[in-house]
Design brief:
Layout (H helix, E strand, L loop, with lengths): L5 E2 L2 E2 L21 E6 L3 H10 L8 E6 L9 H8 L4 E3 L11 E3 L5 E5 L2 E5 L11 H12 L3 E5 L8 H9 L3 E5 L8 H9 L4 E3 L1 H11 L15 H9 L8 H4 L1 E6 L6 E7 L2 E6 L4 E3 H36 L5 H25 L5
Parallel strand pairs: 3-4, 3-9, 4-6, 5-6, 9-10, 10-11
Antiparallel strand pairs: 1-2, 7-8, 12-13, 13-14, 14-15
Helix pairs in contact: 1-2, 1-6, 3-4, 3-7, 4-5, 9-10
Length: about 350
């Protein structure tokens, strides 16, 4: 099946379905399934990119911008006003369409299947929902050589593993030049851990996407695409995995910061990731961030417990009979010990290195 495209009669409807794996590019197929991921500084970068796309652009674009789950996304309207292509918030089971920008809604992952989109509230990945990596894996699995992955400005390293998936399935990978990105960490990590096809300034990406959507990929026969892609897509949709975690990687000494379950290490090229049974997934950078948050939470809990115990000991000391000063003093001393311990923890909380 090919995605529907604009014709004189409008959009051609098409039912979709997840294929058994990345397929070989059909005759005349173009690199026209474009997944774009960005985070901090992404709104301005996306406006500049879509403004440079021509009105007759022959690809379908899918965008994940890290956004607060409580917010209402204005991104579709912003991008529609910025360029010649219409942008819409993706809806579950919506058919794919050339010449249209599809934006992941807040607190939902955006996935692409053959001919349609899935909008699902699966486990967070790299601390985000929507996350970039699930979108990238889905276009890689569904469209193989037709898939294009683009990583723009942002913090940490969401998108790095997804680019590896696209490249493994014969797709094309593009990364914004970090030196010009408002937040270079995400592009830098993508370049560090992947053999990227194109590294270029933002101003050149639209022209490249336009050219790729008009070209026919070289014939590509998938070479044992990682079966982990299918499992991870099923996890994102909260469906049962087809393989046990042991088939995907090895057990790590770490626990999942989100659900406290065991984490498995997954090696993908030069990149190491972690995933738990319930589907939470972390890059190395995002795992460190959430581990730091867990340490901070634990320290605040300990401070609260010590303050409460100190208050309880002083209350007992106040009520103890005056003719038993030794017992009263013992309670007061123990309360003072709790105060000193809480002070130590508060000094740890004040440090930046948690």
């Amino acid at each position: 099946m090919d995605i529907p495209s604009r014709t004189d009669a409008g959009v051609v409807p098409e039912a979709g379905g997840q294929p058994s794996g990345p397929r070989r590019a059909a005759d005349g197929a173009r690199r026209d399934i474009v997944a774009i991921g960005t985070s901090a500084g992404g709104v301005d970068a996306l406006k500049r990119l879509v403004a440079a796309l021509p009105p007759d652009y022959r690809g379908a674009l899918f965008i994940v911008l890290h956004i607060s789950p409580e917010s209402h996304s204005e991104l579709p309207g912003i991008l529609t006003r910025a360029g010649a292509l219409p942008a819409v918030s993706a809806i579950d089971q919506m058919p794919l369409e050339h010449g249209r920008i599809h934006v992941a809604p807040p607190d939902f992952h955006l996935l692409v299947e053959r001919g349609l989109m899935r909008v699902v509230r699966g486990p967070r990945e790299n601390r985000h929902r929507p996350a970039i990596d699930p979108l990238f894996r889905s276009v890689a699995w569904a469209y193989g050589p037709r898939a294009v992955g683009v990583v723009l400005t942002g913090n940490l390293d969401d998108g790095t593993a997804g680019l590896w998936a696209i490249k493994s399935c014969g797709g094309t990978t593009i990364v914004q030049e970090p030196n010009e990105a408002d937040h270079p960490e995400m592009p830098m990590n993508a370049l560090m851990h992947n053999r990227v096809d194109h590294r270029l300034p933002l101003a050149g990406i639209a022209a490249l996407l336009t050219r790729l959507a008009q070209e026919t990929p070289d014939p590509f026969e998938p070479q044992d695409p990682p079966h982990s892609l299918e499992d991870e897509l099923q996890s994102a949709k909260l469906s049962r995995s087809t393989h046990g975690m042991g088939a995907l990687g090895r057990l790590s000494p770490f626990t999942c910061p989100a659900c406290r379950g065991a984490l498995w290490e997954l090696e993908e090229g030069e990149h190491l990731r972690y995933r738990c049974h319930t589907g939470h997934a972390y890059s190395q950078a995002s795992l460190l961030v959430d581990q730091g948050a867990a340490v901070e939470e634990s320290l605040y809990t300990a401070v609260r417990s010590m303050q409460e115990k100190a208050a309880a000991l002083r209350r007992l000391a106040e009520r103890w009979p005056e003719h038993m000063p030794g017992v009263k003093h013992d309670y007061e001393q123990r309360a003072a010990d709790m105060d000193r311990s809480a002070d130590v923890l508060r000094s740890m909380l004040g440090r930046k290195q948690l």
